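Protein in question reproduced for absentees:

***
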Amino acid sequence: MWGHDRDPGTERHEPIGPSFRAVAPTPKGGWLLANPHSGDGSGVDELRAAAAARGLDTDLLRPGEDATTLARGARAEALGCAGGDGTLAAAVAAVAIERGLPFVCVPFGTRNHFVRDLGLDRVDPIAALDAFGGAERRVDVGRANSRLFLNNVSIGAYAVLVHRGWRRVLDALRLRHRLTVDGDALRTRVLLIANNAYSLSGARDRLDEGRLHLYTPRGEIRVASRVVVGARSRNLRTAVDGERAVFETPLELAIEPGALRVLVPPRDV
C-alpha cells in the first residue's frame, strides 16, 4: 500500500465502478512518448516498431527534454506515454487534460500501479498499444499544490527512501513526523494521500469515487475531496507516484473527479 510492489508478476486487477464504461468514440490518431530508461530499458525498439505498425507517432524522451513541452506540441487526437507511474505519465496526463484529449498509459516501468488499477496487464506493453483503438473511461486525478498525481502522495518513511535511499529509512521509521491535517495534529511515520481508496490487496477497486483517502500505518484516518497538510518545516519532502517531490507547506491536496479521459484496449471494456 505504501508504494511498494507486491509482486511484479502477471496478475491482473479487475476494477469496478461506472468509470469503466465506454463513454465516447475512439480518436483515430495517436502520439506516444516513450522513456527508454524506464525499468531496465529493454524492449524499446520492439515497442516503437509495434507503435509504428499501428500508425502511431512515437518520440523517445532524451536527456534534457521536457515531457510537458513535447506533449503540448504533439499533433494527435490522443496522447500516450510508455513509462512508469511517475513524472512522465503525470506530465503527459496533465497535458491531455489541458488539451481536452484522451490519454493512453503503456506499462514500461517498474511498478505500473496505475495500469494495474485500470485492470490492464502490467507486463504486456505491446497489447496496451491497442488502447489507441479502444474505448474511453473517465477517471479521477489528484492535485498536490497544483501538481497532478495518478496514484498517491506519500510523506514519511517511503518519501525518505525515495529521496535519500535505504540507509536513511531505518532512521525515518523511528521518527514520527509532526504534521497537521486540516488543522488537526498528527504524529506518524507515514502519511499516504491516495487518489481513491486502496483495498487490502494494495490495489484500487475504483478510480472514479471522487475522494481522497488518507492512511497511516494504523489504517484510514480521513476521506475528503480536499485536504490541507501542514508541517513544521517550510519545505516538505514527499514521493508523488513514487517520484521525488518537494512542496512548500502547507500542502494543499484536492481531487478532480472524472478529469482524465483514459483509453483502454477494446477487450477490456
